[in-house]
Amino acid sequence: MGHARALRRLAGEVSRCRRCPRLVAWRERAAAEPPRRFAGEDYWARPVPGFGDPEARVLVVGLAPAAHGGNRTGRIFTGDRSGDWLFASMYRTGFASQPGSVRRGDGLRLRGAYVAAAVKCAPPGNRPTPKERDTCLPYLVRELELLEGVRVLVALGSFAWDAVLRATAALGHTVPHPRPRFGHAAEVQVGPYVLLGSYHPSQQNTFTGVLTEEMLDTVFHRAGSLSGQR
Known about the structure:
Elements: H1 2-15, H2 21-32, E1 51-52, E2 58-62, H3 70-73, H4 81-92, E3 113-117, H5 130-146, E4 152-156, H6 158-170, E5 187-190, E6 193-198, H7 203-206, H8 213-226
Parallel strand pairs: 2-3, 2-4, 4-6
Antiparallel strand pairs: 1-3, 5-6
């Protein structure tokens, strides 16, 4: 329970952050000018902390909230098509209680897994700057530090892969040299963790077949095996 309370306190701190003016302006503009399908909805429009099982053995890291996904719903990967793919895969592989999530409080529970983002605010064009990445990184470091049971890190995309390597280094773990390169199903030991790579479940990848359901499921099956949960 101590971990759960500490994670809740951190989530509250994250949600009040205003350190990056460009991101603050963008997340609030997205809420003020929603597309027609979300007109009238009450947007979260704040940084989006991680969520999941405080006793997780697997940490999944994405890039950042979507402007009309997590930035709208207040939960990472919730209410957008990337999340549809991610949670469906986590459901099929035993990490999620249901195959989709459209809003907070819709019944989704993660089992043995925690989901977070490298950058907590929605960035313009889904492209945070290096300075924004570095400003936000301490939050990911603290999430990882509090998730003491985590043994497997799943990075969704190259940006998350780099952020995870930076976070583990910040915790004092030695990153292998030469620096591990991102790739789908790439696997490397970093300190006490195994880092797994996966293509991000963005529409750009799923619509074109760069990432298939089978490919994503394979990564999560591997994560379950490595973490001792399967």
